[in-house]
User: Fold these one by one.
Assistant:
Number 1:
Amino acid sequence: MPRLSRSSGGDFLRESTFETTVSAARNGSYDLASVRKALRDSLDSLEPLLPAIARPGHRVLVKVNLGCSGSRSPAHRLTTHPAVAQAIIEALLDCGARVSFGDDVSRAGQYCEAVYKATGMAEVADRTGATLIDFVATGAREIPSGLLFPSSYLVTNAYFESDVVVNAANCRSGPVIVGMSAAIKNMFGCVVGRRKQHIHDLFGSDQRQFARAIADIHQAIPADISFLDMTTVLEGFGVTPAVQPVGLLLAGTDPVALDTVAAHSIGYERLPMWTTFYGHRQGIGCNDMDRIRIRGIEWSTFEKLHLRYPLIEGPARELPRARATRILNNTMFRQRPVIDAGQCGGCGECADRCPVKCISAGPGSVCKIDLGRCVDCLCCTKVCETGAVHLEVVGAGRAFRRLIDYAATI
Ligand code: SF4
Ligand code: SF4
């Protein structure tokens, strides 16, 4: 099945002006039997059916969410639940596909195993035989964005080396900057290392522009099918968080429609959902409930919740000069990784970890970074145990800053 791409987006937009479909199933618990049944139910009403997407021998990547900070227990509901991941993987294996799954866990340095264990994914790999993939270890490559800035995204090769990509998302209200994190945002995790934080930093508290970038990423690296687990949803970022039972599992090839249905199921339809707004506008899918056909359950009788809204910050008032400074500090004058020869023990861990292999051994085995090829993911800083990799402004940026400092003294 051809993956929807920038070039095919226009065709899809025309299709989505008619109708799009979301497959829904009820699910009340994370008991594996219950999740398996809900998944089967959702697959029964999926269009097209799963075997038409994942064929025998296909290399399928399941993009799970392993959280963005620390090792999280599934009970926190910040990560894809292992029962959901397992049921999806089993269904793909039944199609004869070769399945791998993973997320960017660059924050853990070389200690990814701790994240896999805490999130329950190590057990899923043991039970299913699917391969857990470290998105940094596979290497990464730059792809152009559809925006002025950031002009590119650093995406794991795990995405490009698969025939089919399955988006296995969970749902939570918040974080602050997007209002609701669900199917569209889950693909953001294919961006490697600190490049994700870099996108946050570029837009500050401007949730609209940040959401536009999130939708742009999904358009650049679409998934072939998305699952959105709403068995339970973490409610309230910035208010007292609580895990709320919603009782839904959604599936479909249109992530914008999935997120739109999700928002309606938790009473968020009046919140500004900029990810679905831009997802619709960019031709990724449909955010118009009147044009979304929900199959599998009787939507009119489904008991929708009204979860508390997350604390959403409006864009901070930022003077043009401050905005320009923030953007320059995150682009032209950004800090770059530099290895302190005096502290480097030459262990080579950073070179092994670098996803674009731009670190090599220099004189005396001290490692050196080729900044011309470095993509600023900062994965090297996470593995150096001697603290030899530090950040500094280099080259023209440093000269410019010195000039400004000098000008301030006269
Ligand atoms: S990880 Fe640190 S100590 Fe090891 S080679 Fe790299 S910079 Fe040197
Ligand atoms: S040198 Fe460090 S920051 Fe640059 S690409 Fe390699 S790992 Fe990433």
Note: The pocket of iron/sulfur cluster (ligand 2) is lined by residues 337, 354, 356, 358-359, 369, 374-380 (CB under 6 Å).
Number 2:
Amino acid sequence: MAEPLFHHTLAVRQERCKGCTHCMKRCPTGAIRIEGGHARIDGERCIDCGQCMSVCPHNAMVVEQSTFDQLLTYTWRVAVVPAVLFAQFDDQVTERQVCRALMECGFTHLYLSETGVDILQVLGAKNKDHETPLISDFCPAAVRLIQLRYPVLLQNLSLLRTPAQMTAIMARVELEAEGCLPEETGIFYITPCAAKIAQIKTVGSTDHAIFQGVLNLDSVYNMIQSFLAKNKKLQEQDGGGAWFHFPVFTKTAVQWSLVKGECPMKGERSLAVDEMHNVIEFLEELENEEEVNLDFLELDACAQGCAGGILTVRNRFLATERVRHWSNSLPEQLPEELRIRILSYKDILLPQLYTERAKPKSALKLDKDMGKALHKLEKVREIVKVLPGIDCGLCGAPTCKALAEDIAKSNASMRQCVVLKLKNPKELNSLLRIWGERTQTPKN
Ligand code: SF4
Ligand code: SF4
């Protein structure tokens, strides 16, 4: 089956964009160009990591917004809530109050996203068919990066479903057993990152098949804050009543989305790398290195993992501390009655443990036709030799090599190189002739 086309969630607000190049310099996949004084995102290269948005000094990048209206189209509205949502609040707001506010705001059932860790553990789920080291598929931006830039490492990716997916499957199974009709049940993930929105909205993806919608964590946070502000008594009474449908989870599960959260369960030689540029540096190493003594590699596109997602609102270190503090009050093992509850659905859950292997994306190829691609590659090499090699970004491409590739693909012109233009306009015209572009007579 063909890999579905990526849905993208980030856009540039042209009226705010100053063409300052901060985003272009930050983008890990070279997906941004500055054209006509404004940033443009190339959808073929974008992995929705949100790095561009996090550095824009003019608030010109926007992420697709959630619509809460979709919730109301379902009778049974399930929220799959990540632990980091609770960590956005200070200690005055308890987990129970957050749950209560979510219920009052329209959900009928709440599941902690990380419950899936316990479900997988109780079911004895093991990874299969992978190269070593096993690479986690938990972070969707990291998976997209591998699809785009390191396809050889796709064989290392975990095929086990993510905890959030497993939780959503369990929620659907349980609600159905309680008599809720599948077509009347909507399962919504509350996401701390743009990549998860992109994944859930990518038609044909595994997440799209499991979740009926996705809500941005910052929007949900604002909704809870305004509810709590209007209901001061609820704050004082600690909510009362509203809590998770699956009532207990383990310490390991709650820490799962933090950096090194997955490592304790994945073998002796495990490593966690966070922040996209560190991830790229490490994957380059892994691609070239013959032998690394690692069993498992956890990759988090955001610094501090999900606690640093671009849709979070609180300082990522404080958020991490709160998740850890919460997890310390939780049991190491799931209570027996909950193990039995999971195992009672094992015939339905066990056949759903694995996903299909992600396929490579060919956006970085110069041409679909191999012969033409090789010809263009040669052209890129020649063009790079005459460009200044200082990666100044003034041409609107992030590096001289990126400009050379754009020229080879006829998406840019040598004229964009400001340095060449200033140094020697006559030489520039002769280069334009060599590369088959129309020349301009230099003005005296
Ligand atoms: S960082 Fe990018 S989107 Fe923001 S103003 Fe600069 S060029 Fe425009
Ligand atoms: S979301 Fe990431 S990959 Fe896409 S343009 Fe922004 S920085 Fe580049």
Note: The chain has a mean pLDDT of 89.
